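Researcher: Hi, I'm a grad student and pretty new to this. My advisor asked me to get structures for two proteins we've been looking at. I'm not sure of the right format, so I'll just paste the first sequence and hope you can take it from there.
Model: That works fine. Here's the first sequence with its structure tokens right after it:
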Amino acid sequence: MGSLEDGVPQKTTAPLLRSSPSSRGDRYSFFQRPRSRFARFLLFEKVDYLQWIFTVAIFSIVLLLFEAFLPSSVEKAEVSFQETEKISKDWMVLKGRGSLDFGESIWFEPSKLLEKFQRDDRELNLSSASTRPLVRSRVRKPQLALVFADLSVEPGQLLMVSLAVSLREIGYAIEVYSLEDGPVHTVWRSIEIPVKILQTSNKTEITVDWLNYDGILANSLETMRVLSCLIQEPFKSLPVIWTVHERSLATRLNQYSSTGQIQLLNNWKQAFNRATVVIFPNYVLPMIYSTFDAGNYFVIPGSPAEAWEANNFMALYNRDDLRIRLGFKQDDFIVAIVGSQFSYSGLWLEHSLVLQALLPLLRDFPSDINSDSLIKVSILSGNSTGNYKVALEAIALNLGYPRGSVRHSGIDEDVNSFLSTADLVIYGSFLEEQSFPDILVRAMCFGKPIIAPDLSVIRKYVDDRVNGFLFPKENIRVLTQILFQAVSNGKLSPLAQNVGSIAKGPARNLIVSETIEGYGSLIEKVLKFSSEVAHPKDVAEVPPSLKEEWQWHLFEEIESPRYSNTTSRSYSFLDKVEELWNHTQTESPDVRSLMDDSFSYSIWKEERYIQMMNARNRRAEEQLIDRTDQPRGTWEEVYRNVRRADRFKNDLHERDDWELERTGQSLCIYEPYFGEGTWPFLHHSSLYRGIGLSTKGRRSGSDDVDAPSRLPVLNNPYYRDILGEYGAFFALANRIDHVHKNAWIGFQSWRATAKKVSLSNIAERALLEAIEARRHGDTLYFWVSMENDPRNLLQQDFWTFCDAINAGNCRYAVSEALQRMYGLKKDWNSLPPMPMDGDTWSVMQSWVLPTRSFLEFVMFSRMFLDSLDAQMYDEHHRTGHCYLSLSKDRHCYSRVLELLVNVWAYHSARRMVYVNSETGAMQEQHRLKSRKGQMWVRWFSYTTLKSMDEDLAEESDLDHPTRQWLWPLTGEVLWQGVFERERNLRYKQKEKRKQKSKDKISRMKHRSRQKTIGKFIKPLPEGTGNSNSTVVTMSVG
């Protein structure tokens, strides 16, 4: 949606709701200013003077009545409309958004979305003009996920079933997810679309890998819980199309603001902002949800809801009983006047004109003021308790209608009862709208003949005298003529009855084609398909039979259908959300601290007293130690103890059971992850350990490795996305002995767990036994195979598969990277052979290696990735495009790097063993004997790679290049010069410490000592003196 600003959508509002050009006249003088439609109608059309004088008289009377009955002017009455006691919540929302002037149109323009689509088209053209041709392999169909709150029988399910049937015809593969089961499960099963029920009880998390899908279609406000999962990484950039057809939330926005529930309001706003596109079925909903507008609103008119409600209502209620309940007689002729859902100040003038056109019809009915007239006029607009009702009745009396013959009903009342009891329906609004009015669709579904002005959007679906009656909006007298044709002898004429019956059938499927085509074209614009995805057909190629009607027949086959009240269910859902939010707020730390201020203050006083006592005891102990002799030892022993304390200073933390168990194991499998959305797929055992690619999204209370702290380049979002799981490889390899102390190291993608191809308990035990028994030696064990990958349905060979998932440029990218890496000639274009010998390869980064071999693989990978980055960085960093993808791709290199371990393991003469993830059965792939003559052993040998690594380290250490260079950022920079420099530095530090020690000892030896003041001789005990005793006096020297 272009932007719907908070407040009143005025004439100058833009870009979401814009007044029609006829209402804009700021650039003209007063006499040149374009006049409103009503002014042109009165001044320039052929209106006779009697009608003009009569209209002016009615206008004067109405003004007097407004002064008499209303507390202020018409405009003030509209402003004070919110102050009435019992007003419909929906109407309050509409009134809160402001009103239009008479004859002024309001238009919805999704300007921001349209600009985005145009920008994407330009970028797609730029990518197609790349230096390398981009190829779409068309291996799999585009995948769509439809998400529902439940599978109850309601019109939203009918809409999505009809849409799914059409989308499947043009090439989409669809799966359905629902938070709860229901009767419509059988409908989805009958059209062969799989359904999965998400178990969300007991606060369990939703464990779905949404990255398997190219897009998600969510239906109704109740799917907010799923959207809250999609707000988190790594699902944050996945396209989401959210269809919202309820008004319930909009009616409570003012309540949330007034009661201080700002956080709840922000939660809903976050959900609306997360959706790529929010779809509404009519043009009123974007207005009442303007608070959440983020420029992503879109309107696709059309829904089976009107026909659905009309059919259900007619099946449940009798027309005659409804008339009696509403206060009408059986032989009353009821004319219903309906109009636009928007509020505008000229509404009362339109009603006056329609009532004036109805006046001649009173001659066919009893007109004595004391008798009860058989013609009844019911007007649907506003609310049932507002001041407009009083004014409207006064207008009718002044026009000459008998008292009580004109009634006013509000939109907060039962609209179905209002329409079903009517004999004739008149659309009395001259406001140009963008879609066919829903109220007319419902009236036609009830079988009522309709009379409407020949507005362009109405003329598109209504043929005059076929399925309705049309009159020119400039000439109100034609309406009177049509009324005489439609009413004969106090009843509907045969022509009108025929018009109503003809319109009833097609009205059920009035805008099906536009709705399905609108969804199809929008999905095609929003979704970005990778190179292995076959592009769907154009939506115009949907078979016409699927676009002619909704799939009613599928729902008619449901046994004992339970038609749920979607409105009451939506309000009950909001009640649950508010209750949960209030419960969370009362248990939050901030609220508890406010409730327990006195308790917290007493704890603070007690803690302060304890700290003071501890400090006093510590000082006393220090003084006591100073007074006693302590064996210090030599200075060398003291320095050694201090260094030992510093070394173990960081290890003084409490280790959990898994960490203690892990130290005694031969294998540790790391699970790289990014974002909270991956947490449900991570394991909790001593064999596994998580490694977070971002500090922000790490699991709390776990011993996961913080990759950015070990490899600072991961703090850069660009390289974090580019490296992907290789960021975890490089972070662990950087000073690996500080974090990993096991003989073997492994990795498993969280997506393998989501696809249910991760190691089972049996397979884990089998793998550990093979490793401890050294059954296969230096081996690459893997358990996710390429032949079972859904991207490889055609069972292609290695390089063909790599090309298929990389826009046809995998071979070229690898060849260029190896050429740059090994410094080969520019005309060299060979590739390491990866034969198709009936065996399989590893995908999805789920494998195990000896730790020493892993470091060798990382050494190769760092140089390869640096060469790959050197040829793509400039364009990809500037535009987001690279020739390995058809569109913008943050993870441009990821699909090439996913297969790189196979190339290294095959050509470095490592054994490759496939482990069945369920049974643990092992089968060696690409046996060494079959590789003879095909391996590039010299290219991938440790000696060659080590010498290349040292050359790069020497260049980085000595030259300090200023160019863009990824290699030094991905790990340690080590060569012989670094070792020598570090050894010299350690020697100098050691000599410096020795000299300091010698100087200190020398100072202690040569320091001046104070002379003895005197001696003290202990006196003899009393009564033990003798004649030989001598007295020694104190001498002061």
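Researcher: Oh nice, that was easy. Here's the second one.
Model: And its structure:
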Amino acid sequence: QLVDQTEGRLGPQPVVLDHTSGFEGLLFVDDDLLGVIGHSNFSSIRATTCVYKGKWAYEVLISSQGLMQIGWCTLSCRFNQEEGVGDTPDSYAYDGNRVRKWNVTTTNYGKSWAAGDIVSCLIDLDEGTITFCLNGQSLGTAFTSIKTGPGVAYFPAISLSFKESVAFNFGSRPCSTYPVEGYLPLQNPPAADLMKAHRLLGYIRNILSTSIDIQEERLLERDCALWKLHGEPTVLITLAHIFNHFAPLMIHYLRLTTAILRHEKSRKYLLNNELTFDVLRSVVFFYIKTPLRVKEAGLEELIPTTWWPTHFDKEGKDEREPKDESADERLRRRAYERGCQRLKKRIEVVEELQVQILRLLLNNKDKTTGEASRYIFLNKFRKFLQENASNRGHPTALCPPEYMVCFLHRLITAVRSCWEESSRKTGGFSSEDAYVPPQLFYNGKVDYFDLQRLGGLLSHLKKTLKDDLAGKANIIIDPAEIQATSMDDLDEDEESGAAQRPFGAAAMGGALARPSWLSSPTLGRANRFLSTAAVSLMTPRRPLTQPEKVKVRTLAVEQRTEEDIEGSHGNDGLLLGRPLEEPDQVVADKSLLEIVDGIVMMYNLSVHQQLGKMVVVSDDVHEYAVALKDTEEKIARCPARRADILDELQKSQKVFAEKLNHLSRRLAWINATIYSKEKMMDVYWLLCVCIRTIEHADNTGSLFAFAPELYLNVAMNAYSALKNYFSPANSMEELPGYEETLTQLAAILAKHFADPRIVGTDIKDSLMQALASYVCYPQSLRAVERIPEEQRVAMMRNLLAPYEQRPWAQTNWILVRLWRGCGFGYRYTRLPHLLKTKPEDANLPSLQKPCPSLLLQRHMAELLSLDKDMAASFLNSVLNQLNWAFSEFIGMIQEIQQAAERPERNFVDTRQLKVCATCFDLSVSLLRVLEMTVTLVPEIFLDWSRPSAELLLRRLAQLLNQVLNRVTAEKNLFDRVVNLRLPGLESVDHYPILVAVTGILVRILVDGDRVSRASSVLLSDPCFQLHSIQHLLGEAGDSSGSFGPSGPSGSSGSSGSSGFSGSSAAIAARPAVGSLGSSVAPPISTPTSEEDLCPICYAHSISAIFKPCSHKSCKACINQHLMNNKDCFFCKATITGVEDYSKPTS
């Protein structure tokens, strides 16, 4: 090691992590001493070099996005398992997980980081400041006036929690990813080596582009792309060193690289040599870096004229070609578009060269000198995927997401080109119809590492579905392999995600006779295994058939040969074990199937996440454009006498314009490299591949459980990317076969969100959320309506299953979206009292315009009308959840009110506010589902010849009265909390819940045929209060939350405003609802305070106490409750008795 003599810096060169004395806790450090993984509660480590003067920087690649504190510390800092960098006086840190900065105390700072992000840590010891950057964007000065002077020097340092990992770059790489002007890297770049390499590459290029004319004895120039070298290439050793040490430089020598790889021996030598040409380094060849500074890419010359949107619609979205666009604006926009096209053509030249390199690596005809290049590449590619799929890999071995995006697109282009070439020769199907056959998922030819399968653990599936494999696919799992995957498999790290939470475990667990030793809580993973097995044991099995069966074992990547992949006479290769349901299609190059499978895996690993991250540039352009337009309007309105304000506004205008000039050019680059029409077609092709793969796997019946979860994930994510990331530059509606693809995806979501073959709770939740989002948009909802009727009815039947023992909130949300637009006062997109506020994200599914589905409503009505048992269980579960959600909401607003009234600490936890708002929204949505049911199938409540109709109507009346009493009581708890206007409780208001209740009352009192029956039940309910009805009709003494024929009253906005109250339905509701008061006598007495009221109905005094838990309510509520349930409202203890209660005299 060389001791550095540069002023302001002390320590050896090269700079590495101090793994001998500068650490605390248990850490794993990579061989190059730059990557580190935490292996204890909170480990810390510093670098070997420190700085005491000048401006210095280093970079950190975030490999996992968990809890880490990155920054600087002095030699005097002492860390432990609880305190790390930033927790001691002379250490300073940035934490992107919690979005805070740390120096003994902590405050909010910066942005949230994600895996693949690069953090730059800058220290200016002349000014005494520390700054951090995220992906080259400054987060602002974090610390000022840091301690400096004699004896004070700062080391790069990090503290990280268990399993978190990063990789440092102190300057050892050829160039910093995001250099910051004025700051030096801690390590000097290897300038001499770089110069030598540059010169050597020039020499090689001269050699390749020069030939000798022997007859005329002179040198001739030729195209180096046509280079061929015969015999044993003596230059290979030199090339090996170049590839190994200077791979990033080869981006500038793509033509040279192409020329070298055209030579068969050179290509295979480089592919086979582990040290010289692994896939990770080759990925660099397919990366086109997005410039942070427009000057470094020559963008100012390519795009001399910049443009950004200046016209916005009512929702704040950009208008692509506004009608009132001026001639000057139109000229600027067209000049900008021409510049974007010039840039795109330049980039396409580079992309074409990169595709050529991949096509050379995918050559499967060069078998004269051993194994073909494609199979060498395929095995390297699979190892590359394995390293990136496993969190146990070294962080420095992980491929950055931005590299992965470029690699994916080039690989798709190259693979489709090879596929088309092959299909033309053999008559196989086109790449347009490509999919991955289901047998790849279970025949052991392709290693899926520890990726989760739809049916759970692979070892469990092999045991429970071995008869199905034999019967359907003629495959027998090697008994030795089944023996090996016994209970030992259950000891895999839980972090790998291999252990699955079973679906339906509670239902089936009791059916299995377990040995007593399995009941130990320490064997939780074993219990999960048995429960998962129970689900699969329910799958019907086909008896063994007589055709010849093949015994298979899972092959490791390095053990496979070309025959294992492509097959030979009598051997299907990758397609071994074709199930009876799978068509026998000609696939010429089976190796391409595995590469397609790898492409899907790449998208799932990090490409989708990166596509979402890059959208932020477009969002920034929009925000700055709105700010600039607002500033220009203020300048126009600014009075001439206020020159000081005008000066400040003009400064702001200049800053915004400069920022937009920079961002618009950067956006042009991103649109050309990431969001272009061609890239959109790649993602669309990937979506279609996943859809076809899922459809074929689904046809195999129980063997569908072997399919990896990632195919469903990629199908959902690719659709989301096409819909949200590529617009408005490219529209999804322009894609070929767009509507058919939407319908196919709708069928997959509708069928598999409740598929018993899928056991993973995470993937089931993802499917449910995707379906919930799908029904929010008119085009995708129409796609759901286009799927076959049998599938639509099955979907609705699954949605109407009882809510207990399953995640029900998303199910309820789906039903609400199918109804929204049809309900009473339910045609709004946003709550009326929130119309004046700007939504955080207008693209959210919940903020889409109502688009009800009358077709699916009809299916729901038919199902509930014909199946009386299902209707009763469904509605009882909805009423139970409404009772729970509203009770939780009331309990929470009581706590919030108490916290707000404390004089010593007026603070309410934001998480508590969020949960409170969620409970309110759930209550409203459950009321809307009840309104939907009453409207579509009123006989469920009003036809008392049905066995449960009377009980359901009484339960409904009780809950409606409880809600009304709580919400409409004068100056009550609900009013007080609403008037606090707390951030996070914006949706909590009188309007949404009162119109939902009114919608139900209108249906059973106005539109119903049996009005008198419904009226008598409402009136006879002990919770009925006349003032609640008067409040609804605007006849109460204080009408601040009511609405009548003249429209909602109250200027305070407590109930919002809407035009619905003058409608015929509302006017018709007045006499019917108002007549309820004619048969009701005025209350004899009222409780003296709110504390004396029953906490359930809020209508009567507390008169009963439960035993043994001593909770209280009125007698009417507990008697009604005990008809269906023996558990306490509050603590769920079993009620053994109910006694009279009277308030003791004070």
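Researcher: Is there anything I should tell my advisor about the second?
Model: You could mention this: Residues 1043 and 1049 are 6 Å apart (CA to CA).
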